[in-house]
Amino acid sequence: MEFSLFNLPIKVKNSFFFLIGFLSLMWGSGPDGANLMVSVLWFITLFTAILTHELGHALFARWYGMKPRIEIHGMGGVTIWQTMKRLDFRQRFVISFAGPGTGLVLAAVFFALLQIPNLPALLKALLSMHLTVYVFLNLMNLLPIRPLDGAEVLSTLVGWKNGSVNEKVIEKISFITATACAIYAYISGYFILALMAGYLGWRSYNSANPNARR
């Protein structure tokens, strides 16, 4: 599926409908069976969370003269842009932070709306879902783990302040953070998250130690 928003081309791949649809159905299931309405609300929440996150990246990339496009897939989303000029560290930092920053600002809006008394039950449920997902998704994205936004935020912030950055150091920080997250997730019983964090840590270890792959 392809469409345009704010004059930005957006492509939603089939893997998104399959994987996120499956996740939404799973989260919509309860002791009494599947609740289609709850599943639809989860699907809407996940879609808008990913879309607004990527819009944050894309709009600021366009502000700095790039030609961005957004792809949404089963594992999340990505903003890709045609390089029209060389971006400095400050500009790259702003673009990297804009995704999670946009999501956290919207989370604050959802929190404020939830304070309104006598909201319809369906709207309250939708806002609560949005608040939960927006906070979790965007705070997680700020972890300094490649390829999450946090690693690029850290890299460009160091480069902005020092004029250069040692990417091997960033990869080592990514490895340590991912390993810690994998251990915590495993102890907490989140085995899929532990596996994902472990995989990202392994990737960062190989990037920081290229000789280890030989």
Word description of this protein:
The chain has 214 residues and is of the alpha+beta class. It has a domain at 2-143. It contains 7 helices and 6 strands, in the order ββαββαββααααα. The strands form 2 sheets. Strands 1-2-5-6 form a 4-stranded mixed β-sheet. Strands 3-4 form a two-stranded antiparallel ribbon. Helix 3 (89-114) crosses helix 5 (149-162).
Topology:
Layout: E1 2-5, E2 8-12, H1 14-27, E3 29-30, E4 33-34, H2 36-63, E5 67-73, E6 76-82, H3 89-114, H4 121-141, H5 149-162, H6 167-187, H7 191-208
Parallel strand pairs: 2-5
Antiparallel strand pairs: 1-2, 3-4, 5-6
Helix pairs in contact: 1-2, 2-3, 2-4, 3-4, 3-5, 6-7
For the secondary structure, the number of strands is 6
Give the CA-based shape: globular
The SS-based structural class is alpha+beta
Give the helix proportion (percent range): 55-70%
Side-by-side strand order of the widest sheet: 1-2-5-6
Give the DSSP E fraction (strand runs of 2 or more residues).
Answer: 5-15%
Instruction: Round the mean pLDDT to the nearest integer and report it.
Output: 89
Number of helices: 7
Rg (CA only): 19 Å
How far apart lie the N and C ends? 41 Å
Largest sheet: 4 strands, mixed
The low-confidence parts are none
H-E string: EEHEEHEEHHHHH
